[in-house]
Request: fold
Amino acid sequence: MNTLRLGLLRGGLEIKQFLRSRESVVFTLLFPLILLGIFGAIFGGEIAPGVSFTQYFAAGMVAAGLLSTGFQSLAIQIPMEREKGILKRLRGTPMPRTAYFIGKVVMVLAIGAVETVVLLGTAALFFDLDLPSTAARWATFAWVTLLGISACTLCGIAFSSLARTGRSGPAVVTPVAIVLQFISGVFFVYSDLPAWMRDIAAVFPLKWMTQGMRSVFLPDSYAAREVGGAWQHGTIALVLGGWVVVGLALCLLTFRWTERD
Reply:
């Protein structure tokens, strides 16, 4: 209980630090919203009866926002903290190490919730995105969001060990996040992508997060146009749950409190 209390206090500090960094706020919260506005204004028309491209894109951007908050932000923040010696000093304090990670999780959940609400509100008001109308769809939205952001958070913590310095963090992480968005059905209709791209995307969580979000926000009739011919909720849960386990294992094996040198 003491560790949990310290972790929650640490989470409050993480949120304050995030909000004080204008660059983090703009990139994490406003960048997905800007993309939603740009793509929504440029691309029009229907990709299927009753489904516009903007509706399809908005559903994918919700998943991409979770990727940005959980994976991208942590994989950039943690190397910077490591380079500045913050992690080394925290390791030398009486604070349990687990409390540090609880704080990061609290920050990701809070920022992710705000970003999701903003994206959904904007998409519903300006791009005709239909919000879930049944309890079953809200339940699907909840477990896809929970598993997705958990997998992204753990993978972000593990991926943070690849950057040698804080400055190299964005250069290492950003291309990976952008490529995943292009091949996972965020910017383009997933079924229209080349088969080899789909095969690569199917290995990673974002593809399944976007498919899960489409099952929440698009009509059931669109499921037949998915590559598997259905929403595949069981497979989505299995893949995302598997990445939670893999991400946790990688965190335990690779996380570093100090720089390699």
Observations:
- The chain has a mean pLDDT of 89.
- The two ends are 36 Å apart (CA to CA).
- The first strand starts at residue 46 and ends at 48.
- Strands lie at 46-48, 51-52.
